[in-house]
């Protein structure tokens, strides 16, 4: 009996699945609260529960692989969280820096452009300014957790990026992300932004991997640890430590795999709603599209290969706001549901009830902050939950020191705008978590959920009504308010479905979409229906609370699948490893051809050797990468796109070529891909996620 454990660490819950590869069946599932302060706590609880359900110590000994999908990186980008980083650029001009968008994506991050870089042929444009680089690195070594390095045309010659990476290691000891190692795209500004976002996530993914490894050791599990990437394939944890941005949309990609396997459909819309986000993908012929332009998350367009997915800040734990102008706003920020906070800290309920009884509803008393679940007392200079070793600024450290183990109302701990800005920075850095009213709280009031404190949710709703002067503040009106919150989430979810299927910009003005999302069947005297032409497969914990209403509003077919609440973890359990290498061939000045790859350019004079040499290089690099990512062995496929002179000259008329090699195999230690016999091809639901080029 070969077992695989799939794990998903979401914003609220950590899910676990035990999957038996021989019978291709789910043996056991389990959930535990995600503990952001110490991820090992939640991971350990989920692992312990699922192993106990699967057979305890005997099951632990039979585990051949642990595979993890995670929304950690996605949520960090959506919520603007991460470690402080600095960016070092070689050969970039001011226009390129502006196009990269550092000011928006990384506010306040130090960015320096120095002389250097190469041209399109891989020739050095200017010598690298080592003195300027050394001064920059020395100045910021103690202020940031990691560095991002990008050089002009590094995909044609990586020499300057490699030289700067060596300096980062020698002078600072901090991690360095090289843009050319993440993408072979020629778009230097977007490569640089992708590298910077990657550097910002290193601490986050490091904390997760260490947590899972500790939990595995505690439970006696000796097996390879793999992480799901954004294209649905797997990579070893050691590889992901250096490339965490490749895990953006990891959770949704795994959900596509899990939903496809469970639904048994070839054509459908998948909507995965979790605590923080809703992720939507369209499958046609059993295959989700890969986003050729690069994954976009949190408004940032990266160069990461990922499933073409729309991500919305809509989840069960999205913060509910009631603007002064009226209406309800759901998300995009995730907060701890007040019902969950009070269940873990009963004094919160007492404080809420006292405030309501005294009629003191000013200052939004339903909004709180707390140290991340699982956090022990830390000194103000210690690494935070992200794993960053950066020391907090004085104001942040002083405010954090005032917050002990118990939650604090925001109005009390930060009564003025200046203190609120400091508090917001602590939340953004992961040192604190905000709590407030969410759709999960609304579900507790209406009786759709009964996990935590209904009384706290009800009291918070009454405080909101009293503060916003939205009418009487009693249980009946609080119940009506809760229904309005769930309806607003259903409406936003329905509109998100329509935008994704129609490939319309998010939030674009469209009266038809608005009417359909409202559940109206008429518009300006016209009867109409607007819904996907295929079923909607809804997965994720909150899906049953919302998607029945989504289906009613759109007149669409909604399907809930078995184990849909742990679809991410199931998808993680059935993945394969894939290494991808892109090699470019171009004409060389003076005759012959130049091959550009991950190493120094290779010149070839003989026409009959150029493609063969490029093919050998691509095969070797894809195979090496697959091994680095954790594959035991791999099969290689190569796609070649070429431009030739007219006249049928063969390779002698070659102008340029792009060779894309993909090496695919099972994870080391597993023997064969889940759901296959040794040497067989991966099961279709796995291949469909990552087989497009």
Strand content: 15-25%
Rounded Rg:
26 Å
- The CA-CA distance between the termini, in Å, is 34 Å
Q: What share of the residues lie within helices?
A: 25-40%
Q: How many strand units? A: 31
Please give a structural write-up.
- The protein is an alpha/beta fold and 693 residues long.
- Among the domains are: 323-469, no CATH class; 575-690, no CATH class.
- The protein contains 24 helices and 31 strands.
- Strands 3-2-1-4-9-10 form a six-stranded mixed β-sheet.
Annotate the secondary structure layout.
Blueprint: E1 3-9, E2 13-20, E3 25-33, H1 39-54, H2 57-61, E4 63-70, H3 72-78, E5 85-90, H4 94-100, H5 102-105, E6 111-114, H6 130-140, E7 146-151, H7 159-171, E8 176-178, H8 179-182, H9 188-218, E9 225-228, E10 234-236, H10 237-240, H11 250-263, E11 268-273, E12 278-284, E13 287-288, E14 296-297, E15 300-301, E16 310-312, E17 318-321, E18 329-334, E19 336-337, H12 338-344, H13 347-358, E20 368-370, H14 394-401, E21 408-409, H15 410-413, H16 417-428, E22 433-436, H17 439-446, H18 454-467, H19 475-502, H20 511-517, E23 522-523, E24 526-527, E25 536-539, H21 543-554, E26 558-559, H22 567-573, E27 577-587, E28 593-596, E29 602-604, H23 607-629, E30 635-644, E31 654-665, H24 684-690
Parallel strand pairs: 1-4, 4-9, 5-6, 5-7, 7-8, 11-25, 19-22, 25-26
Antiparallel strand pairs: 1-2, 2-3, 9-10, 11-12, 12-13, 12-16, 14-15, 17-18, 20-21, 20-22, 23-24, 27-28, 27-31, 28-29, 30-31
Helix pairs in contact: 1-9, 3-9, 4-9, 6-7, 11-22, 11-24, 12-18, 13-18, 14-16, 17-18, 17-19, 18-19, 19-20, 19-21
Domain Hydantoinase A/oxoprolinase: 191-333
Region (Disordered): 670-693
Protein name: Hydantoinase
């Amino acid at each position: 009996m070969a077992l695989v454990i799939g794990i998903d660490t979401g914003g609220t819950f950590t899910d676990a699945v035990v999957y038996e590869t021989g019978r291709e069946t789910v043996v056991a599932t389990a959930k535990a609260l995600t503990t952001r302060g110490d991820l090992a706590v939640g991971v350990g609880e989920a692992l312990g529960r699922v192993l106990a359900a699967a057979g305890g110590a005997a099951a632990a000994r039979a585990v051949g692989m642990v595979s993890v999908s995670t929304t950690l990186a996605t949520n960090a980008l959506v919520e603007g969280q991460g470690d402080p980083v600095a960016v070092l650029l070689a050969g970039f001009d001011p226009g390129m820096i502006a196009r990269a968008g550092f000011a928006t994506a990384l506010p306040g991050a130090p960015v320096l452009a120095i002389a250097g870089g190469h041209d399109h042929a891989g020739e050095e444009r200017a010598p690298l300014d080592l003195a300027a680089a050394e001064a920059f690195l020395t100045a910021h070594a103690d202020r940031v957790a990691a560095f991002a390095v990008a050089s002009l045309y590094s995909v044609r010659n990586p020499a300057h990026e490699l030289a700067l990476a060596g300096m980062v290691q020698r002078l600072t000891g901090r991690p360095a992300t090289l843009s050319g190692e993440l993408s072979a795209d020629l778009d230097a500004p977007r490569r640089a932004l992708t590298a910077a976002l990657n550097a910002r996530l290193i601490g986050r993914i490091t904390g997760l991997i260490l947590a899972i490894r500790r939990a595995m050791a505690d439970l006696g599990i000796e097996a390879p640890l793999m992480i799901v990437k954004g294209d649905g394939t797997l990579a070893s944890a050691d590889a992901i430590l250096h490339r965490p941005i490749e895990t953006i949309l990891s959770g949704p990609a795994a959900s596509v795999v899990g939903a496809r396997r469970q639904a048994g459909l070839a054509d459908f819309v998948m909507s995965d709603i979790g605590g923080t986000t809703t992720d939507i993908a369209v499958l046609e012929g059993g295959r989700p599209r890969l986003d050729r332009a690069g994954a976009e998350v949190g408004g940032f367009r990266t160069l990461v290969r990922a499933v073409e997915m729309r991500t919305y800040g809509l989840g069960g734990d999205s913060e509910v706001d009631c603007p002064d102008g009226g209406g309800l706003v759901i998300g995009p920020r995730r907060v701890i549901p007040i019902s969950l906070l009070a269940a873990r800290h009963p004094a919160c309920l007492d404080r809420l009830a006292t405030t309501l009884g005294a009629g003191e509803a000013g200052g939004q008393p339903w909004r709180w902050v707390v140290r991340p679940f699982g956090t022990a007392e830390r000194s103000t200079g210690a690494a935070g939950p992200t794993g960053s070793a950066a020391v907090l600024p004085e104001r942040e450290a002083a405010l954090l020191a005032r917050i002990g183990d118990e939650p604090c109302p925001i109005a009390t701990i930060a009564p003025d705008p200046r203190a609120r800005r400091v508090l917001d920075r602590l939340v953004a850095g992961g040192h604190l978590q905000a709590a407030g009213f969410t759709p999960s709280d609304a579900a507790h009031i209406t009786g759709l959920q009964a996990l935590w404190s209904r009384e706290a949710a009800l009291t918070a709703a009454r405080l909101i009504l009293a503060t916003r002067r939205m009418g009487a503040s009693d249980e009946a009106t609080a119940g009506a308010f809760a229904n309005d919150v769930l309806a607003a989430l259903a409406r936003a979810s329905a509109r998100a479905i329509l935008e994704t299927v129609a490939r319309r910009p998010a939030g674009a003005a469209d009266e038809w979409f608005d009417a359909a999302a409202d559940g109206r069947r008429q518009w300006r005297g016209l009867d109409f229906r607007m819904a996907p032409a295929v079923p909607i497969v809804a997965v994720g914990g909150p899906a049953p609370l919302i998607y029945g209403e989504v289906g009613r509003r759109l007149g669409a077919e909604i399907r809930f699948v078995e184990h849909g609440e742990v679809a991410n973890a199931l998808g993680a359990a059935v993945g394969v490893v894939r290494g991808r290498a892109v090699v470019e061939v171009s004409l060389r000045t003076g005759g012959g051809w130049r091959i550009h790859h991950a190493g120094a350019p290779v010149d070839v004079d003989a026409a009959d050797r150029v493609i063969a040499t490029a093919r050998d290089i691509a095969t070797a690099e894809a195979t090496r990468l697959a091994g680095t990512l954790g594959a035991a062995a791999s099969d290689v496929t190569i796609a070649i796109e070429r431009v030739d002179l007219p006249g049928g000259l063969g390779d002698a008329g070659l102008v340029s070529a792009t060779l894309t090699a993909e090496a695919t195999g099972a994870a080391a230690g597993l023997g064969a891909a889940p759901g296959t016999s040794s040497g067989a091809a991966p099961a279709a639901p796995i291949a469909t996620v990552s087989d497009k080029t």
